[in-house]
Specification:
The complex is a heterodimer. Chain A is α/β, with parallel strands linked by helices. Chain A has 13 helices and 17 strands. In chain A, strand 1 and strand 2 form a beta hairpin. The longest helix of chain A has 21 residues. By secondary structure, chain B is an alpha+beta fold. Chain B is built from 5 helices and 3 strands, in the order ααβββααα. Chain B has a 3-stranded antiparallel β-sheet, with helices on one face. In chain B, a hairpin with a 4-residue loop joins strand 1 and strand 2. The longest helix of chain B has 15 residues. Chain B starts with a helix and ends in a 5-residue tail after the last helix. The model of chain B has no long low-confidence stretch (mean pLDDT 90). The chains are: A alpha/beta, B alpha+beta. Chains A and B meet through helix 11 and helix 13 of A and helix 1, helix 2 and helix 3 of B.
Chain lengths: 409, 145
Amino acid sequence: MLNKEIRNHFPILNQEINGHPLVYLDSAATSQKPVQVIEALEHYYRFDNANVHRGVHTLGNRATDGYEGAREKVRKFINAKSTEEIIFMRGTTTALNTVAQSYGRANVSEGDEIIITHMEHHSNIIPWQQLAKEKGAVLKYIDLEEDGTLSIDKVRETITDRTKIVSIMYVSNVLGTMNPIEEITKIAHQHGAVMCVDAAQAAPHLKIDVQKLDCDFLAFSGHKMCGPTGIGVLYGKKDLLNAMEPVEFGGEMIDFVGLYESTWKELPWKFEGGTPIIAGAIGLGAAIDFLEEIGMDAIEQHEHELAGYAMEKMSEVDGLAIYGPTDPGKRAGLVTFNLNDVHPHDLATVLDMNGIAVRAGHHCAQPLMKWLECSATARASFYLYNTTEDVDRLVEGLRTAKEYFTDVY
Amino acid sequence: MSTNKLDQLYRSVIMDHYKNPKNKGVLEDGNVTIDMNNPTCGDVIHLTMNVEDDVVKDVKFEGEGCSISMASASMMTQLIKGKSTEDATKLAHTFSDMMLGKDLDDSIELDDLEALSGVAQFPARIKCATLSWKAMEKGVSGESQ
């Protein structure tokens, strides 16, 4: 377990909600921000703000250094070969849409296959649905096992020589399942398909190594990993990105502009049309510094232990059903559950009155909810600032909710 | 726990409607069908009505959702059955005002619906309460599917 003093870096956690100390268990939706990130944003706006890549003046240089410095931090964070492979975007959704609209449109034809799974977030479903419709391609889903994991045999059965793109989440935002991306990538490559990874729930919690995974694209968001909202990353292999057309055209991404023809900048800037998300990138850089000082391995370990503790304590609550893999070693730091007949919204409201923030709903994964045969669930997700005391408070809150609804039902 | 505030939300009449909903089911001979969902939380409602001569002759609902959304749907069907489409629409507007915490016109009979006034204090739950009303309003306005 990590030192509890980590909490002191997060000013937002030090407050009361409805008369109780806040227990924030919704980090899978968005994480809280450490003071280091808040100060980096403030410092940028107070002292360094200017547009990048054009000013001859000092502020322009500072802003450019901050922005490009953040890119190098991201490169190192995911062990990419070069900063040319790191493209700043609004978030995971924009990054996945860019792959679908640029790589997808150029490489997928009628009858080709795009493969995803039943556990995907909407942002890794709809871009492919749209692409498949546009091109007359086939969107195929890999079925899940009983415990919400993927079987490599089924992956092998589903991917064929007609498959052009395989796009799978690294860690499930509902089930907590950690998918064997490295193995799936190998299978995709054997069939000549590219592998795209939705790492929105992985980047905050574990060490990502894109060279080891050998994936072709990987997307994640800054706000789930202690960074600001509005900044995310698309990683792509250089040769693929080089061959791809930009999706957004305009300022900042051009080389020469003529009346009827224009040319693009080199990587990564050709994909960054318009004034980029400068403060966001600098904030993300500060978040990466913060996370790396603690250590991604230590964070992953902390969350495994916390999830294990939570599953043990929560399963002692009568009538509580937990979804996803039962082995805490196979799952990330979140627990999705339902309590008897109490609807998750009602449950979340009672927990909120006790100062506990959890998510309730379909978690942007309607096809997965269908697979689970429920319309909604509650989810408690943990991060580096959560403690076993937070879990105890949750369990206490669940018992209170149960009693409350037994009385009023 | 702030039980008092919670009790304002979960009044017993709401839980009664949740456990024993009125007009649950599908009208086989209905001439208006509305499906609506709340995409942020997954609540769904399937509303069937029989509207003749601008009067809601009969109404039934099917749906999935929390106690607030299902109780609200049950109360809504109870209140609008037999009413003119104009009065039903007026009720929907009154209910909407109630959710916004506005002062209400005393002359309108709200019956059990009064119990939902506590929802106004829980902004995150207002959409739960208004789903079935929005479906009904759409239905009586002639925008049926």
